[in-house]
Amino acid sequence: MKLNKDQIDHFNREGWLLLPELFSVQEAALLTLEAEKIFASTRPEVWREKSGAPRTAFAAHLYNQAFGVLAAHPRLIQPIEQIFGERVYMHQFKINAKSAFAGDVWQWHQDYGTWKRDDGMPAPRAMNIAIFLDEVKSINGPLMLVPRSQMEGDLEASHDLQTTSYPLWTLNEPTVARLVERAGIVAPTGRAGGMLMFHGNLVHGSAGNITPYPRRIVYLTLNAVSNYIRSPSRPEYIAHRDFRPIETVADDALLRLAQAEQISRDRPAVAYGNLT
Amino acid sequence: MKLNKDQIDHFNREGWLLLPELFSVQEAALLTLEAEKIFASTRPEVWREKSGAPRTAFAAHLYNQAFGVLAAHPRLIQPIEQIFGERVYMHQFKINAKSAFAGDVWQWHQDYGTWKRDDGMPAPRAMNIAIFLDEVKSINGPLMLVPRSQMEGDLEASHDLQTTSYPLWTLNEPTVARLVERAGIVAPTGRAGGMLMFHGNLVHGSAGNITPYPRRIVYLTLNAVSNYIRSPSRPEYIAHRDFRPIETVADDALLRLAQAEQISRDRPAVAYGNLT
Asked: How many Cβ atoms from other residues are within 10 Å of residue A77's Cβ?
């Protein structure tokens, strides 16, 4: 798994890169099934919306085999090591539900702002990665990215404890308007199994989801080993303290697990999982 | 302005029809400008979101010249008279702001449910019409429609006074999921000046808008004259009591008004109107 020059140039210029269908339908279906089980549980790592609908499950790679394999998968790790020129460790690992009917908004923000202020991360040498567990459509609350905004560095932000059910350092409206006026907004879509990577300083957000289509993604952060966090203030299941570089698994490890679980090769994405 | 057979068949089958670019850029720009003035005013007909951002301005055709001309425009009136085989009057006329950054959600609902229960409208012989004042994009809270759901008739609904800032008879999640599983969701988009018409029993909703792009539309209801409301309970500026058929203006009436106001022929849609 190597990025080509066009892909690297696109990432360096635009601040994001989509690798569609990186994981097979079968691999993605296993992860969706496991995510449903986790969201149905009541662990402290599983956070909920004001409505009670699941919002985020943290650190699933530490207590679920399939997500453990995903977190060490070469298709995910190698492109990031290639870009940073250095090995990486898992800074954060979460499954975001964006539930059918009840998925809440994420206001405009940069992630590095939080890593710096809350975790003491020295530089934005950590990569955001979204793995699609459901089809991401234009109507079910896709991630919206402001291209090239990573070049602005760390923008002024205020700590928003109100408008979302998760504390965020959010940007003010004139800043977002200025950046969008220059470069617009992209909202990459695609079937389950796709992978979207973007810069820690890329401005992004997502609207609520009122459709019957859940938009679950694994949303993880790989940090360059030398860039380990210096002064973490958040719980260990949110900002990890294991700074050892990730040892990747075999490329077919997730597929073999799906086969062992007898996941059908053409099992469709579960569209109405939240209703059952 | 006559619909052709394909357009009528599409409406009768799918429950909706988009007439893109029905009004010129110049005509639409005049309406956008007038809408900004109305939203900046403090009339009782102008309702606001919880945040204070404008949400809906009712009955603007009765106190604003440009919207008065729009409300009697043949491009808007004639297709509806053609479908109903009868003359029409204005049952409701509002400008919905769906403001930049702060546009709120409209839960899934049918409009005829409200007209029947709150206004005593005998039959769903009234047409919903949306005129785009800004470009409607996939990311700024487009109307989402469930095709063919008008064939379900008047579905069971509950009066929702909580989740939106406007009282609505909303549908439950299993009902929406069942209809969407059958026919999916469409979210028509297009530049300012487009017109979307849809059946009074078509299930629809829209997500919030967190982008810097406002998505203002004129949202009006033309009712067949014989189907006048029998027992109105809402204020007259919401459910009108003037049941006389609309006398249309000349096709160039709105254009001439735009020219008189010196609206440029290529004035772009105002993208950041809410920020000024």
From this structure: 22
